[in-house]
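Follow-up to my earlier ticket, as requested here are the two runs.
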Amino acid sequence: MLPFDLAIQTYSRGTLVHLGRGITADMFLFRGKLGRKGWVTAQFGTGQQAREYAEAHALDRPDSRLRAVRIELLHKLLTKFPEGELLDAGCGPGVLVRSLLDSPAYDYRITILDQSEAMIQYCVTHIESGRVRARVGDIESLPFGDASFDVTISTGALEYADASAAVRQLSRVTRPGGVVVVSMLNPLSPYWMTDWFLYRPAVRFLAWAMGILRIPHRRYYGASRTGIRALRAGVLRRYLLQSGLVPVDVVYFGPTPLLRPLDRIPALRRWAERRGGQLQTTKGWNRWTATGYVIVAHRQG
């Protein structure tokens, strides 16, 4: 059996069309029976996984710093919409929600939703506030009525879902005149390109080869299948427009000159952070180096 799925992935419109719309992080995969939905569920399905994911935000790791930059950017963008009913769809362990509750700048009545019951349970346990209600549910089929929220947020979740279906649902539950804020990894970033097409396949191949040779090895963190499918900003903007949303701002965050796995070298990481400044965001020429982006859109009346 070959170690890689050389057919890459099969989509109804073909691989080349898919690559023109966005890039999947799992183009080179070990064969398996779970499928994309199963990989996503398997990553966040237990209490231990929820706890480890939440605790990772406090660690000095590249992915943790990326999430911190994204949260700081969201706070900056949300100052224009500081109150009302807010939905965090795909809330994970509730790091963003806790930061909003801790800030005096916002007066939200917050609803959190995640498809992982373990994530929701973690949130319920660690968020002590009567301003938060929690639901287990799928972002592609939100269990809320039309026009239920003034502010609808989905960060770090669309990569794991059918983004087109999820955006339609976010638009449906947002009130006319309300705002939708979504984020996405930047699939054209050199950082993610090297991570997805070089680093992860190399680690998987090494693990496969060592297994064939019966050489003991440990499973490398971050090289497992994720189910991530990242879209270019132009594609996500089109989904928003098709769903009755008007994009008003696109901000790229986390630009870095580093490639994976060079970001693991502390000296190089500190050098890159000094170049980027405190709040690493951009709308300029260097947006192609950004690791992610946020789009703010208004719901048409």
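Run two:
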Amino acid sequence: MKKFLATLTLAALANVVALPAASITFPSLTTIYVGSGVLDGIGANVATIFSCSNVSGVTATLRVQVLFGGGSVAGAASGPVTHGSTLLVSTRLTAAFIDNLLISGAEGVQGVVNIESTQSAVFCTAAVVDSANAVPIFTMPLHLVRINPHPGTVE
């Protein structure tokens, strides 16, 4: 009987895990993350990368906006992220990653990022990296703060 209940419990748990929470579709680009510590070095091999994956079930629009420390906009990049894919946005070309989008104007930035999406089921990470090294060297992971959470998640 215990084995039967354990099997039944595991089967029920597998069904729950397999069903993602319904994604919220925002009426327009909506902030999902903010983060501090964005860095891009002029004359130095330093870039900040933002890696965002979409598991919403539909194509989402993503926008990554970088601001200087004083609050003025340094630059932004936006584009579509299809379901199940990852978009890598960076402040400059990197040797270790496939940079899908570049944020023009972010050269020399030391500031903040605002990440917006049209879907709640887009999840992002960020790090400051050595842009010239073909082997990923992560100088500093950035802590992104989730602003509009996806239902059923805790970040």
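The only thing I checked on run two: Confidence is low (pLDDT under 50) at residues 1-19. Let me know what else you need.
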